[in-house]
Design goal:
By secondary structure, the protein is of the alpha+beta class. The chain has an eight-stranded mixed beta sheet, with helices on both faces. A two-stranded antiparallel ribbon has the order 1-2. Helix 1 crosses helix 2.
């Protein structure tokens, strides 16, 4: 077995989020000052396309960088600081989960001992019931709507109720999955909602859908399968409190789709409109092909403009680009 390969039972970096295949690729890259996917594939005994996918994941995690030039060449970042950052993020996630255990245990105990707990949760079945409740929550909202948004949708991707609710002074905070931005017309609609007052952010890997109205009632689909819809309506309870904490956690992790307060708005004005659109899509988690399609560019043009944008921000990867752009108020 080549030295860079790691048996599944001996994955040392599983705690940092790496699977056996990614760890083998990472070890192969660490052993060279610079390398190509083909060279790595020869060492780890994997297909070239799997190695490229692994390198992209390692690059997104900040463990490797792609060197300049048309030829794909990668170099490792300093592993101590890079892995410490990953592990710190994992520790924070575990701490948040651990803090929720007590609340969930209380909910379980209450459900076993208090017959009134049945009134805290309603079960919905079917697309129409789910979509109808989402419309009802927005119409009844008086102060705030919080949403985690990702496809598929029970009724339609567009939300004609939100502009009306915003006009009544109800605040909206929305965290979008990248898949939501790929829906035709979605970016234009989100731009219009932001102009009306919505605060919008994007979070790659967002796993669930959720809506909370006035911090008193939540709508949670139990599956993303819209052919067999099951959802729950959660009233005031420890479960609702846990869902509110979950939303706030995702909100803090997400990147804004527009400039932050106090950002460098003069610098944003100097950024061409198509570059602003590219930057928003770049940090949203969309694949290169989807970004090029949204902007009406060829894939080659998109990647050339992306490389120029990363260089302009002094960023090695998309995550760094998002952080630095947000600090400048460019998003």
């Amino acid at each position: 077995m080549p030295a860079a390969q790691v048996p599944a039972a001996e994955v040392a970096l599983a705690g940092a989020g790496l699977n056996a295949s990614d760890e083998a690729v990472y070890r192969a890259v660490l052993g060279r000052p610079a390398t190509t996917p083909a060279e790595v594939a020869a060492v780890v005994g994997q297909r070239a396309e799997r190695v490229v996918a692994a390198l992209d994941r390692l690059r997104a995690a900040g463990l490797v960088t792609r060197l300049a030039g048309r030829r794909r060449r990668y170099a490792p970042t300093e592993p101590r600081s890079a892995l410490e950052s990953l592990l710190n993020a994992r520790r924070a996630e575990l701490d948040r989960a651990r803090d929720t255990i007590g609340e969930l245990a209380e909910l379980f105990t209450a459900a076993q001992s208090d017959s009134r707990s049945a009134e805290m949760i309603e079960v919905l079945i079917g697309r129409a019931a789910l979509g109808g409740w989402f419309v009802r929550m927005q119409r009844d909202a008086r102060e705030e709507m919080l949403t985690l948004d990702r496809p598929p949708y029970a009724l339609a991707a567009s939300n004609p109720i939100e502009p009306v609710t915003l006009s009544r002074g109800v605040r909206y905070r929305a965290v979008y999955a990248p898949q939501a931005l790929e829906v035709p017309g979605a970016l234009n609609e989100i731009d219009q909602l932001i102009a009306r007052g919505e605060q919008a952010r994007v979070l790659p890997g967002l796993p669930i859908k959720l809506a909370i109205a006035d911090r008193r009632i939540a709508l949670l689909p139990l599956t993303l399968d819209m052919t067999n819809v099951r959802a729950i309506v959660v009233h005031s309870s420890t479960l609702l409190a846990a869902l509110l904490d979950l939303f706030e956690s995702y909100w803090q992790q997400a990147l804004p789709l527009r400039g932050l307060p106090g950002g460098d708005t003069d610098a944003l004005d100097d950024l061409a409109e198509d570059d602003q659109s590219l930057l928003r899509l770049l940090v949203s988690g969309l694949k290169d092909e989807a970004i090029a399609r949204q902007l009406g560019w060829s894939l080659r043009t998109m990647r050339r403009r992306m490389r120029r944008m990363l260089d302009q921000l002094g960023a090695e990867n998309r995550f760094q680009a998002g952080v630095r752009a947000a600090r400048r108020g460019w998003l």
